[in-house]
């Protein structure tokens, strides 16, 4: 079970040297990517050259152009929304294969639905895993649903590897571990803590070691 630490604000980059011992994946979150562009990817790569960087582009169109930008900047993964057209998925998949990179299928626009992906959904082999993602704004508005945690089992039954994101921290970690996603995504519970390094160490120490290496074998 890997720990992905999500950075959303400029000041979060300052924590990277102290967080990198506990991060298996570093996420350049969408707000940070919009603030600094691909420079944020390059900065993370410079600070943590041995840790894969995920660019949370949430791509929905222009797949080839966005893929070329983030992969050429050093990102090892990027996100594409599950609601994007199949042509976009195919375009991003081709560029990922060209760069030896991987793609994460983000289901955030389907959060809370009974079925996150249609049964006939098919994606290129460069798609590494499905991101089951509870939206930040919904949670800030008072939604305390744990449906995204429950959805991990459904995705596993369908043969997908899963990353789980949204409201994950010390209070929910036990339920998250029980759901057994391959990747646990933690953002503000670490980056907005009084002692981010200590929280990252605590979470990392509790995640089971499942022997999931990098890069993953693709299904």
Automatic annotation (TrEMBL):
Residues 2-203 form the Orotidine 5'-phosphate decarboxylase domain. The keyword Lyase applies. InterPro entries: Aldolase_TIM, OMPdeCOase_dom, RibuloseP-bd_barrel. This is 3-hexulose-6-phosphate synthase. Keywords: Lyase. Gene3D superfamilies: Aldolase class I. Signal peptide: none annotated. It comes from Labrys miyagiensis. The lineage of its organism: Bacteria, Pseudomonadati, Pseudomonadota, Alphaproteobacteria, Hyphomicrobiales. Pfam families: OMPdecase.
């Amino acid at each position: 079970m890997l720990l992905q630490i999500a950075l959303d604000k400029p000041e979060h980059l300052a924590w990277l040297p102290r967080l990198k011992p506990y991060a298996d994946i570093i996420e350049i979150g969408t707000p940070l990517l919009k603030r600094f562009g691909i420079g944020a990817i390059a900065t993370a790569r410079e600070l943590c050259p041995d840790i894969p960087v995920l660019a949370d582009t949430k791509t929905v169109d222009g797949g080839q152009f966005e893929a070329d930008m983030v992969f050429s900047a050093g990102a090892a993964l990027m996100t594409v929304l599950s609601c994007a057209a199949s042509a976009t998925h195919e375009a991003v998949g081709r560029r990922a294969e060209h760069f030896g990179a991987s793609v994460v299928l983000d289901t955030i626009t389907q959060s809370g639905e009974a079925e996150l992906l249609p049964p006939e959904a098919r994606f290129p082999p460069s798609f590494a895993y499905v991101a089951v993602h509870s939206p930040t704004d919904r949670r800030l508005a008072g939604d305390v649903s744990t449906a995204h945690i429950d959805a991990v089992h459904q995705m596993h039954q369908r043969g997908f590897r899963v990353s789980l994101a949204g409201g994950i921290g010390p209070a929910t970690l036990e339920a998250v571990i029980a759901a057994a996603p391959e990747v646990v995504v933690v953002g503000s519970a670490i980056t907005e803590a009084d002692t981010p390094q200590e929280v990252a160490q605590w979470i990392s120490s509790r995640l089971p070691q499942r022997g999931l290496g990098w890069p993953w074998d693709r299904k």
